[in-house]
Amino acid sequence: MELVLSPEDEAFRQEVRAFLKEKLPPDLANQSATGLRLGKDDHVRWQKILYEKGWVAANWPVEYGGTGWTAMQKHIFEEECAAAGAPPLIPFGLLMVAPVIMAFGNQAQKDRYLPRILRSDDWWCQGYSEPGSGSDLASLRTKAVRDGDHYVVNGQKTWTTLAQHADMMFTLVRTSDTGKRQEGISFLLIDMRSPGVTVQPITTMDGSQEINSVFLDDVRVPVENRIGEEGKGWTYAKYLLGHERTGIAGTGRSKAQLKRLKEIARTEMSGGRPLIEDPDFAQRIAQLELDLLSLESLVLRVLYAEKAGKGPGPEASFLKIKGTEVQQMLTELMMEAAGPYAMPFQPETFRDPQWNEEPAGPDYAPPLASVYFNWRKASIYGGSNEIQRNIIAKAVLGL
Amino acid sequence: MSFAFTEDQQLLAESADRFLADKYDFDARKAIRRGEDGWSREMWAAFAELGWLALPLPEEHGGLGGSTVDVAVLMERFGRHLVVEPFVATVVLGAEAIVRAGSDVQKAAILPAVAEGGMLLAFGVGEPQARFDLHRVATAARRDGGGWKLAGHKAVVLHADAADRLILSARTSGAEDDRDGITLFLVDPKADGVTLRPYPTVDGLRGAEVLLDGVSVGEADIVGGVGAGLPVIEAVIDRAMVLLSAESVGAMAETVRLTTEYLKTRVQFGQPLSSFQVLQHRLVEMLQAKEFAHALCYRAAGAMDTTDGVERARAAAGIKAEAGRAGKMIGQEAIQLHGGMGMTDEMAIGHYFKRMTMIDVQFGNAAHHLRRFATLS
Ligand SMILES: Cc1cc2nc3c(=O)[nH]c(=O)nc-3n(C[C@H](O)[C@H](O)[C@H](O)COP(=O)(O)OP(=O)(O)OC[C@H]3O[C@@H](n4cnc5c(N)ncnc54)[C@H](O)[C@@H]3O)c2cc1C
C-alpha cells in the first residue's frame, strides 16, 4: 500500500533523496542504525545543513523563511529524512515556540527570535509542567510578579526535555491569582543564562539523561519577553498544543523503525528459522503495519484539512494516541526480537561514540530494552493519552 | 496442597516479609547494587543463616527438603523486594541440576557448601543462535584422552561472573538441534580457556558471556550421563520458570500496591487521581491479572513436584506465558498511571517494570511458551 504520488510529488521525493544522499553526514545517518544517542552538536550540525538548503522550517510560512510546501511535500520530506536516518528535528524552537511567536508575538520578537531559531543559534526548551501540575496544567504555580519593566519569576518546572542544552525556555507562569485559573497565566520567554536559573538533571529508568528540573529563583525576565497579552498565555499554549499533536504522530520515523524491525526479525533465528517466518511474530508485525498505515492515512487527511484552512481540530488527539501506541509497539517488538540479548545492559556501546568494542550479542541488540523502557514516555508526554481521550470525549463526542 | 498454604509456608512468608522489609527496602537495594559485586555477600550470608539457601536442598546434603511451593513462597517475597542476589543462578538452577543428576561425590562437594552460603553456581544452557531452544547446542565437547575438551559460547549466563563453578551444556554427539547427545559439565571458571565477558543486566542483575576455547574437563565433571543432559536441563528450567513466575507475581503485587498508593496521593484537577473511575478500573484490571497469575503460579508450583514429562512442561509453559503477559500489562500500566514520575530512575516503580520485563525474556517469553503450551499435549 505505497502512496501513489503525482509526477510532481515523485520528482520532489527524488530531489529530497538526492539531497540527503549528498548532504547527510554518514556519522549522523548511522545513529539510527546503531541506536547511538546524538549530542547537541550533532543536532545543531544537521539543522544548520537543512537551514543552508532552506528546508529546516517545513511548516513555516515562506515570509518567515519557511518552505511553502504542500501537506504532501511535508509528509514526503519527513518520511525521506527518517528513512535516511537523519536526526529528528528538535521541536521546541522550530515546531513549538515559533508558531506562537508568529501568531501572537510582536514585530520586535519576531525579528529577534525567528531568524535565530531558523539558524539553530538558540536551543529552546519547553517549561510548562511543574511537580504539582502535569495533566492539570492550569493549576501551575510558578509565579511572575511585575517589578518595573521586569517580571520576577519564582517556581519550579519539571520534566523539561533537554533543558541542559537550552539557551532559551518558553514557559507558562502565573501572573494573577484572581478569577479563572486559566486567565491568570502568561507566556514568557526566559533566557536560561539569567541569574537564578538552575537546571538539575533527572535520570530516567533506562539510564538516559534527557529530562530535567528547572528551578527559577528570583529570575528577572524583561517584560518585553512576554508573548502577547498578560493573562492570555493559556490561549497561546492551547494553540501550540494542536501543533504538537500532529507532529507527535511521527509516521516517518515509525516507517523507518518498522523497516528496522523487519531487518532484525530477518536476522534473528527462532526454532532454526528466521524470526520473521514465525507465524505469531509475523502476525504481530502485520498488525503493527496496518496500524501504521491507518495512522498515516488519518495524518494525511488532517494535513489536507489544515491546508484547506482548518487548523488541526480535536481529531489530532487520535493521531497522538495511535502514533505513540505504534511507536511503543515498535520498540516492544524490537526488544522481543532480540530474545535473551535484550538482557545485557551495555550503555557504553550506544551512548559513547568512541566505544568500539564488540557488545555481547548482535550489534543492534544493546539499546533495544532501554529504548523500549524509554518510549513508555510517549503515552505520557504531550498531553497523556488519557487526557487525549478526555478531549475526544468532550470535543468530538460532545459528552 | 497448592491451593492453601501450610502453617510452615505462612511462617516462612511472614519471616521473609519481616526480614526483607527491615533489611531490603528500596534504598538498601540501591546501596547493594552500587557495591563491587552488584549484590551483597553480607546479605547472602544472612540468607544462608535464615536457611533460605538450604530450603529446597535434600536433607541428607545439608538441606531442608522444601517443596517447590515452599521456594515459590520465598521467591514471591524476593519479587516484592527486587532481590538481586544470585539465588536463582545458585540455588534454583545450579544446585537443582546437581540434586537431579549429580554424582554422590558432586552432591557431597557442592550441596552442603551451597546451603551454607560458601559456594556460588551458574547454569549456562543458552547459546547465541539458540534463542529460547534448550536443545539447540553448538558448543562442542570432544574426547581428549581420559577427559573432554570444550569449545563454544554460552550466552547470557546469569551471575557467571561470581560463580565458583559453572554448569554448562555441550554437545558430545549429534547435530546442533538433536535432542540427544547433550551433556552437562561442571567447569571451573578459572580454568584455562574460559573467558568471561561480564555485564550488568538491564534489570539490575549480573550476567556474562562464557567463551570456551579448548577447556579441559574430566570424566568426574560430567553431571548425569554422557548425552543425557537434555531431560535434566528441561526439568531444571521448567521448575525455574515457575519460580521466576513466582518472583514476577511478587513484583506484580508490589507494583499494584505502589500504583494504588500513588493514585491515592497524587492530586490533579483538585482531586486524588484515584477518584477517577477510569483509573480505578485500570487498577482493578491490574489487580485482577495479578490475582489470576498468583493462583495459576502456585498450582504450577505444586505440579513441579507431582508430575513429570509433558504434564510438567505444560504447567511450566502455561504459567511462564501467563506471568509474562500479566507482568507486561501491569508494568506498562503502572508506568502510565504514574505519569512522569513513573519514568524516573529514582522511583521504585520503573525497577519493578524492568524486572518483570526481563523475567518474561528469560528462558522464553510469553509468545514462545504460549505456543509450547498449545503444542504440548
Ligand atoms: C520523558 C518526558 C519528557 C517530557 N518533556 C516535557 C517538556 O519538555 N516540557 C514540559 O513542560 N513537560 C514535559 N513533560 C511532562 C508531561 O507533559 C507530563 O508528564 C504530562 O503532562 C503528565 O503529567 P504528570 O506527569 O504530572 O502526570 P499526572 O498528571 O499526575 O497523571 C498521572 C496519570 O493519571 C492520568 N490522569 C490524570 N488526569 C486524568 C484525568 N482527568 N482522567 C484520566 N486520567 C488522568 C494521566 O493520564 C497519567 O496516566 C515530559 C514528560 C516526560 C515523561
TrEMBL record, chain A:
Keywords associated with the record: FAD, Flavoprotein, Oxidoreductase
Classification via InterPro entries: Acyl-CoA_Oxase/DH_mid-dom, Acyl-CoA_Oxase/DH_mid-dom_sf, AcylCo_DH-like_C, AcylCo_DH/oxidase_C, AcylCoA_DH/ox_N, AcylCoA_DH/ox_N_sf, AcylCoA_DH/oxidase_NM_dom_sf, Mycobact_Acyl-CoA_DH
The keyword Oxidoreductase belongs to this UniProt entry's keyword annotation: yes
Similarity remark: Belongs to the acyl-CoA dehydrogenase family.
A single GO molecular function term of this UniProt record: oxidoreductase activity, acting on the CH-CH group of donors
Protein name (database record): Acyl-CoA dehydrogenase
One Pfam match: Acyl-CoA_dh_1
SUPFAM superfamilies the record matches: Acyl-CoA dehydrogenase C-terminal domain-like, Acyl-CoA dehydrogenase NM domain-like
Domain Acyl-CoA oxidase/dehydrogenase middle: 125-216
Domain Acyl-CoA dehydrogenase/oxidase N-terminal: 6-119
Cofactor(s) this protein requires: FAD
UniProt-listed Gene3D superfamilies: Acyl-CoA dehydrogenase/oxidase, N-terminal domain (1.10.540.10), Butyryl-CoA Dehydrogenase, subunit A, domain 2 (2.40.110.10), Butyryl-CoA Dehydrogenase, subunit A, domain 3 (1.20.140.10)
GO CC field: plasma membrane
TM regions (residue ranges): none
Residue span, Acyl-CoA dehydrogenase/oxidase C-terminal domain: 231-397
Keyword NAD: no
Top-rank taxon, per record: Bacteria
TrEMBL record, chain B:
Classification via InterPro entries: Acyl-CoA_Oxase/DH_mid-dom, Acyl-CoA_Oxase/DH_mid-dom_sf, AcylCo_DH-like_C, AcylCo_DH/oxidase_C, AcylCoA_DH/ox_N, AcylCoA_DH/ox_N_sf, AcylCoA_DH/oxidase_NM_dom_sf
Keyword NADP attributed: no
Organism: Thalassobaculum fulvum
Domain Acyl-CoA oxidase/dehydrogenase middle: 122-209
Extent of the signal sequence: none
Family the UniProt entry places it in: Belongs to the acyl-CoA dehydrogenase family.
Domain of life: Bacteria
Needed co-factor(s): FAD
Official protein name in the record: Acyl-CoA dehydrogenase
UniProt entry keywords in alphabetical sequence: FAD, Flavoprotein, Oxidoreductase
Gene3D superfamilies linked to this entry: Acyl-CoA dehydrogenase/oxidase, N-terminal domain, Butyryl-CoA Dehydrogenase, subunit A, domain 2, Butyryl-CoA Dehydrogenase, subunit A, domain 3
